Amino acid sequence: MCLGIPAKIISLDENGQGEVDYLGTRVKTNLAFIENARPGDWVILHAGFAISRLDEDEARETLALLRELADAQDS
Amino acid sequence: MSASRSPDPSLKGEPRRLAGAPSPADSRVRVSLELGGGGRLMREFLKKHILSSFRSPLLRDLPDAAHVRRTTALTTDGYVVDPVFFPGGDIGMLCVNGTVNDLVVSGAAPEFLSVSMILEEGLPEEDLKKILASIARASSRAGVQVVTGDTKVVRRGQADKLYIVTSGVGRVVARAEPRRIRPGDAVIVTGTLGEHSLAVLLARGDFSLKSSVKSDCAPLVFLLPLWKQGVLWMRDITRGGLATNLHELAERLPHSVLIDEERIPLSRPVRGACELLGIDPLYLACEGRAVLIVSRSRAGAVLNALRRHPLGRKAAIVGRVEKKTGRPGALLLATLAGGLRKLEPLTSELLPRIC
Amino acid sequence: MKEFRDRKVIAGLLRTIGRQARQAGPPVRLMEVCGTHTMAIHRYGLHALLLEAGVEMTSGPGCPVCITPDSHHRAAIGLVSRRENLVLATFGDITRVPTRDGSLQTAIPAPRSRVQVVYSPQDALETARRNRDMDVVFFGAGFETTIPSIALAVKQAAAEGLKNFSLLSALWLIPPPLRALLESREVRIQGFLYPGHVSAVIGCRAYDFVAEEFGLPGAVAGFEPADILLAAASVLEQMIRRSPGVENEYKRVVREDGNPRALALMNEVLEVTDAVWRGLGLIPRSGLKLRARFADFDALKKFGLKIEPAADELPGCRCGEVLRGVIKPTDCLLFGGACSPDSPRGPCMVSPEGACLVYHRFAKS
Asked: CA of B25: which chain C residue's CA is closest?
């Protein structure tokens, strides 16, 4: 039951109900488990719930590592 | 990625259909929803019941369109799409294009249609008028005439709004030549995949998803000239999606067919919705897309010809017939990660009443 | 984010892993305990690629529908076929799990009752709101990724006084079966890939005991091809250095202490209990049940049901051994013949996260 998708928060109300966007598809999402959720934040979506934030700094670091690996392959 | 949550819209409190199991009240085996799915169960049903009941040699290969008297092609289809109106089209547009496309991919220029409607008592006249207008528009666009038909009305609850059966007649202009397929020949799809299925699925409102996806329902008449330009085989990508339809060809070939996952054209909304719902787009039905096998030397020209047409702008070479990889008859996928795996045909119903 | 699927990146990671495996002593056997990992590994062709590099991936008890014993499914089937005016709401794959009483999909509901496939526990709640005169039972199976949303549904039902809603639960915790597997010493495992989204909820410390008590390395892994390979490389690195621990290789999603809000909610609504797993038997403190103050929403109490653990599988079915990682799906005699996606004999061939279905769908060429 681990299927989770990175999606961006588009809107949310004070009850923790919101909408996220994934590649142009809008999904009704419950944001109760995300502290200080705000539109523009990225979360991991699992069956109508956001279970975790996507940390953009960590993502960038990992991406940089992967790009290095790709470049190393060329040389 | 597929999730553990492929929803089955059939289980919405409709009359229960037992999938091949006898009911306790009587011990008869009953028709299950899976039979209509276009998967293996349907093919077995066809072999078991249809071929044994009807003996015409023309039926032996179970063609979607039969070429009779060498110059005439005949086809028929039932349309039970739910819901009847969906983003990008409706059952009227569908019943014309679906039948037209069956003729085109069999090598015939569509000319005449019959339209037989079964209406549920209580269907708003407004809706019926819209659908008839759609049929008229689609026929005109496809260059066919509706020349005969029938209308029946059944009691409220005995049909779901309306069902349409369309038969089509066309003039044979070419014949598929699967025997001439050779290693190196190209597999081309005429556009992005899965839009019709997703549009219909989302229109059912089972999911709290909003998307801009619209059905790709369209006539494939523009493919006809390509029969003389190197196309050896064509199939419209309906039930079962690209994987199932291509698998039917692959298993008859003395070679394997290799598809490259990276080259499959998918629109952004389809990619997103598929990942969210855990659906594999290779198994999604379209209603205005075809897969072609084109001889190697003509593939580039065919691709250019496709891309010049508004309905073929996203056409792409997605794979080729192979000699050195895999066993004869296999359909293989080169995955995004650089691995290789077999593509199996759809076994049971992914999405009922999609067309 | 396409770098996570970039062929050059993957080739580079595989080269590293190949070198590491040669140093560590191939073949290195690693276990993952997440159905989505099983799926990703086979769907992207990584199983074969890793094998070439000297790493053999084994699948463990990572599919919640698969490890739910028949007894739960039969309780659900019993409910919908014997109680009138009842909606049995559940996830799609659960409806197709075959038992001695058939499956939910083939069950004949009692008058005015039906099975409803839902996408999330919230859908079941909505059904309960719209049908106050019907009993709505949500049959939910899940690990810690899904459990918070199920707990929230019950809490909301309680807050709204939705007395017609209840939960038939099959809630499982990931860390206890790891201990059970290691203690049984049945399978030779040299390291673990920990489930990325379960870990997003429970954090990384939950697995410390694997390194501390059993000396095995592990890494929390995401689900893109690069994520899985990065985690495998991390585990191999720990092996070579002989310093087993729990490395977080999914830092963009997983925090060391997990998701405190989700954990707090789980704790508020649920309590730990002993549970019987398909294939693994009784594991102490490995499941969750509703706390006493939510007893009104417990379907077992409401309908006077008992879950009777019994010899589960249909004859010939070896799901239990597949779930323990003792055999591969292809080792089962029924695989691909008597047991196939069309006519499954056990849940591992039904659930998209079941190892048998994954093997069948993504068969190597």
From this structure: C108
| CB-CB under 8 Å, A33 with C265 | yes
Residue type, C329: P
- The full set of domains in chain B, from first to last, is 33-62 (no CATH), 64-172 (3.30.1330.10), 178-342 (3.90.650.10)
Same domain for C303 and C318?
no
> Do C40 and B1 count as a contact with CB atoms less than 8 A apart?
yes
Smallest CA–CA separation between A20 and chain B, in Å? 10
For chain A, the residues whose C-beta falls within 8 A of a C-beta of chain C are: 1-4, 6, 30, 32-35, 44, 46-49, 51-56, 58-59, 61-63, 66-67, 69-70, 72-74
Helix A56-74 and helix C7-24, axial crossing angle in degrees, nearest 10: 80
pLDDT tens track of chain C, all 365 residues?
778 888 889 999 999 999 999 999 889 999 999 999 999 999 888 999 999 999 999 999 999 989 999 899 999 999 999 999 999 999 878 888 888 888 888 888 899 999 988 878 888 999 999 999 999 999 999 999 999 999 999 999 999 999 999 999 999 999 999 999 999 988 899 999 999 999 999 999 999 999 999 999 999 999 999 999 999 999 999 999 999 999 999 999 999 999 999 999 999 999 999 999 998 989 999 999 999 999 999 999 999 988 877 656 778 899 999 999 999 999 999 998 899 887 888 999 988 889 999 998 886 64
Residues C257 and C321 in one domain: no
**Subunit contact A49:C12, Cβ cutoff 8 A:** no
- Domain map of chain A by residue range? 5-74
C141 forms beta bridges with: C170
| Domain-located, residue C8 | yes
Task: Find the domain containing C339 and state its range.
Answer: 314-360
Is residue C94 domain-shared with residue C52, that is, in the same domain?
yes
Q: In what order do the strands lie in the sheet with B256-260?
A: B231-236, B290-294, B186-189, B316-322, B256-260, B331-334, B340-342
B161, C9, C22 from C15: Cα distances, Å: 59, 10, 11
**Is A59 close to C146, i.e. CB distance below 8 A?**
no
Contact partners of C by the rule of 3+ C-beta pairs under 8 A?
A, B
Q: Which CATH class is domain A5-74?
A: mainly beta
ipTM: 0.90
3-state SS class at B70: coil
